[in-house]
Amino acid sequence: MKSTISVLKADIGSLAGHHMVHPDTIAVATKVLSEGKKQGIINDFYPTFVGDDMEFIISHNRGELDQKVHELVWNALKEAASKAKELGLYAAGQDLLSDSFSGNLKGMGPGIAEMEIEERPSEPFVVFMADKTEPGAFNLPLFKMFADPFNTAGLVIDPALHDGFKFEILDVYEGESITLNTPEESYDLLALIGTPDRYIIRRIYRKQDNMLAAVVTTERLNLIAGKYVGKDDPAMIVRVQHGLPALGETLEAFTVPYLVAGWMRGSHYGPLMPVSQKDARATRFDGPPRLVGLGFNLKNGRLVGPSDLFDDPAFDEVRRTANIIADYMRRHGPFMPHRLEPQVMEYTTLPKVMERLKGRFKKEEGTNKAKASIYTSSETNE
Ligand code: 13P
Ligand code: 13P
Ligand code: MG
Ligand code: MG
Ligand code: MG
Ligand code: MG
């Protein structure tokens, strides 16, 4: 029988700023999901959070984008948002961009990562969840896990991984997707995913047999809402072991606190810091961007676990480095490259400030207007 793992998440309002989910809002949502479990809509669920993002890890047998499962979660999020309003929490209902549910959660604000799979005799998987960053933030570690032999020893020494993987990439600006194969198209893949704001790894399959190995939330809130409504704070499901990267190979990909877009007001680069569930609260400059990893097994459709994977002294040095990088980046204040580049700032509140200066620019004689957009470079080169 096929099982579906769904990770569905949203910011429904948070305590003391964009800081952390209030336990009372999780309690309210849990009640709704427990009812859904009693009714047999879902088999099992684990409610959790990272920073101000409420996350549900759910197992069921209804497939991806299922109306009943999504409606159940929508109701849980709505109830939680009502509780958030009642408590006066900050930005109550932040990611719930639509008023009424119609079919599934797509385009409504919540992040969606789902995989329908044939459960293996042992089905270990990890759910990675980040706050104060965007879906493309997982491009770098996913490349390391599934395409970099310096990270994943199995790519070299395990015949099941040795043929490589297929990466499905979404261009969120054009609304197009492309699939590239590794190792043979690794450089083409990097040419795209090195621009994580635009090209996002959505799914990864094992090339040998098309086995689905990883799924990422790719919803971009500002592109849905047409204005800045916070960051998209991604989550992903990564299956591990038995001819896939080992658990430790997936975690190894987070040993460099690489720079991601997000942090304060969704407008700054900062290091992604892997933390325990206990430390999954945004603090300094609303960050630094944080990552939680929970390890599970799926057995007969039930969730076994989790293990809080970064609650571990093996990641102390990564966190220390992240704090050093955070200090260094912060010293740039409002200057790039701490602040995001202008193309991306167009999706923040900065254009409102620029609007005020508009009439004050004076034309300089003898100067040419440059074509600035990096996304129309083929025109500018002609
Ligand atoms: P075990 O022999 O402990 O199962 O380890 C196998 C493995 O692949 C470790 O990465
Ligand atoms: P969130 O997307 O996590 O709500 O962040 C919004 C923000 O502006 C933080 O400074
Ligand atoms: Mg928020
Ligand atoms: Mg958030
Ligand atoms: Mg957000
Ligand atoms: Mg073992």
UniProtKB/TrEMBL annotation:
Mg(2+) 4 binds at residue 232. It comes from the Archaea. Beta-D-fructose 1,6-bisphosphate binds at residues 18, 90, 103-104, 132, 241-242, 265, 286, 347. Pfam families: FBPase_3 (PF01950). Mg(2+) 1 binds at residues 11, 18, 52, 94. Its EC number is 3.1.3.11, 4.1.2.13. It catalyses: beta-D-fructose 1,6-bisphosphate + H2O = beta-D-fructose 6-phosphate + phosphate; beta-D-fructose 1,6-bisphosphate = D-glyceraldehyde 3-phosphate + dihydroxyacetone phosphate. Coiled coil: none annotated. Signal peptide: none annotated. GO terms for molecular function: fructose 1,6-bisphosphate 1-phosphatase activity; fructose-bisphosphate aldolase activity; magnesium ion binding. The active site is at residues 11, 228, 231. Keywords: Carbohydrate metabolism, Gluconeogenesis, Hydrolase, Lyase, Magnesium, Metal-binding, Schiff base. Its cofactor is Mg(2+). GO terms for biological process: gluconeogenesis. Pathway: Carbohydrate biosynthesis; gluconeogenesis. Homooctamer; dimer of tetramers. Belongs to the FBP aldolase/phosphatase family. Consists of a single catalytic domain, but remodels its active-site architecture via a large structural change to exhibit dual activities. This is Fructose-1,6-bisphosphate aldolase/phosphatase.
